[in-house]
Every structure is written in C-alpha cells, then in structure tokens.
User: Which sequence fits this backbone?
C-alpha cells in the first residue's frame, strides 16, 4: 500500500524490554509507525508478539524503554503516579481488539459500544448511542444492536468489539490475533472490516496469522522471534524474497 512518508511517527518505540521474572521476553526493540501505516507482526508462538502489542498500551508494563503515541511519551522508568496519568491518556489514543472478544455478556451490542465513551470520555447517552449506531452500521451489524453476545456468532462479536474500540475515536488500532478464535468461514467478515479501516487511513499494528491480510493490506511485515525483530520488510519483499534464513524457514512452515 506504501502509505509511509517522512512525517513524524504516530507510534515510536525505543529500547523496549520486558521481563517476566528471569524470562527476557522482549529484547530492546525499536519501532516507528507512520500515520496511516499498517504494520503486521507475525512469528512463532512464544516469540513475544502479543506481549509487545500489550506493552504498547501498557496492558503489560514494560521493564525498560519508551513508548510514544501521537506525541504522548511514557518512559517505563518514570514515577508511577505520573506514569498512571499518562497511561490513561495513552489508552484514549489506542484502541485494542483482542483474540477473545471480551464483550460484557450482560450488555447488548449497543450497550457494549457506548459504555466506554460515556464512562471515559463523558459523552451523554444520546451522543454515545448516535456514534455507536453509526459504527454498528459501518461494521454491518445495525440489526444486531439489541442482541446479547451469547446470541451473536464469533465474527459478529469481534465486529462489535471493533466498533467498541472505534467509538473512543482512537488515533491507532492494535489487533492481537483478532481472527484466531474464529471458525474459518467467519474470518473473512472480520478481515474485511480491518481492510476497510486500513483503507480509511487508520494507523494499525496487527499481530496475526492471516497472511492474505499481511500481503494485501500491510505496508510492512515484521517477523518477531526470540524477543526481537528477525526481519522487517515490505510485504512484496518479505513473502517473495526475504533476506533472512529465519524468515525463509518460518514461511516454509506456514505457506
């Protein structure tokens, strides 16, 4: 897609480390993501992909390094009180969609989408409903607004989760294997929404095994292994002429 330019990064990561006890899961990675760029991270299980993504909005607390989103920088070593205030602001800028849909089971689709804008951003119920109805229509679920999650398919639940994240009007979207819990026939409906979001200029970091999405939509593909970047390249290079033997071996297993 080649949306990257020389403008200031929307996401800037420097020297990011994450330890779980003695386990060194992320090993000093750097990353710049330009506005409207789509970066896909793939790699073997246990390589640190989901942990890296969760560090971007401090669902996992980095052990060292800095993370900057839309000019808001947080240093892993800054005082906790200051850090907490910054984390709240950062999470308003960073929407996240999880592998498991994490919808509130006792709330309808509409109620799930309006909850955060009302409680976090202070929208009135009428304002939140108007925004939520617009987004549910955008993800193709207007007719499901009053259904509870138990009455929705996995693909429908994940589309509600995307609408919920978008209702906060984030500057970036983080996707943590958003289709891995879905039956094969439901994957396409979620990927199609993600493709439309990318084409509308949303900055996205996506951990996924959906190589069709990585090939067709991303600006860069990263192979993450052993806590670091094994290869970073545009998709046409990454999938057809990778430079690293580790990448060639990984692709040989999954293609």
Assistant:
């Amino acid at each position: 897609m080649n949306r990257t330019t020389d403008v200031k990064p929307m996401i800037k990561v420097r020297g990011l480390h994450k330890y779980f006890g003695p386990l060194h899961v992320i090993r000093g990675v750097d990353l710049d993501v330009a506005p409207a760029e789509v970066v896909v991270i793939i790699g073997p299980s246990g390589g640190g992909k989901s942990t890296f993504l969760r560090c971007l909005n401090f669902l996992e607390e980095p052990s060292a390094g800095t993370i900057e989103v839309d000019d808001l920088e947080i240093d892993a070593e800054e005082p906790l009180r200051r850090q907490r205030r910054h984390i709240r602001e950062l999470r308003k800028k960073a929407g996240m969609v999880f592998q498991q849909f994490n919808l509130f089971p006792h709330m309808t689709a509409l109620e799930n989408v309006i909850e955060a804008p009302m409680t976090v951003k202070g929208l009135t119920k009428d304002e939140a409903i108007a925004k939520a109805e617009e987004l549910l229509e955008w993800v193709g679920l207007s007719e499901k607004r009053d259904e509870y999650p138990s009455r929705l398919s996995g693909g429908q639940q994940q589309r509600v989760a995307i609408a919920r994240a978008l209702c906060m009007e984030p500057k970036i979207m983080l996707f943590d294997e958003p289709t891995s819990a879905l039956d094969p026939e439901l994957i396409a409906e979620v990927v199609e929404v993600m493709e439309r979001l990318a084409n509308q200029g949303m900055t996205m970091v996506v951990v996924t095994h959906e190589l069709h999405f990585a090939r067709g939509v991303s600006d860069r593909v990263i192979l993450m292994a052993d806590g670091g970047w094994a290869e970073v390249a545009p998709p046409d290079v990454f999938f057809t002429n990778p430079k690293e033997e580790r990448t060639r071996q990984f692709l040989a297993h999954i293609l």
